[in-house]
Amino acid sequence: MAMGMVSEACGVFHQMKLKGPAPDFETYSMFMSCLCKEGRSEDGLQLIHDMLDCGIIPSAVNFRTVVHGLNMEGKHELVESVLRSKWHLRRQRTISN
């Protein structure tokens, strides 16, 4: 995706959050993938936090997408943080079930 298209997608995504319809799991996932492919994995990581804030549970694929992007960008400390967060989330879901 061209850089201008990513910026345009960012605008549409933020308008959805403000005015509706609210982004769903698929919208978050597609946008996250685009951001990570464009070297904006920290923004993709923020989407995981946004999903959780909205009550949407990120999938293993969402986490892998962000981890892969962060690794490609050399942000290994963030990778460790993401993996710890994923482990903590999984543990919470196991305990609450």
UniProtKB/TrEMBL annotation:
Start and stop residues of the PPR repeats: 24-58
Q: Per UniProt, which keywords does this protein have?
A: Repeat, Transit peptide
Which InterPro entries does the entry mention?
Answer: PPR_rpt, TPR-like_helical_dom_sf
Note the Gene3D superfamilies from the entry.
Tetratricopeptide repeat domain (1.25.40.10)
* Chain segments annotated as coiled-coil in the UniProt record: none
Q: Which family does it belong to?
A: Belongs to the PPR family. P subfamily.
The protein depicted here goes by the name Pentacotripeptide-repeat region of PRORP domain-containing protein
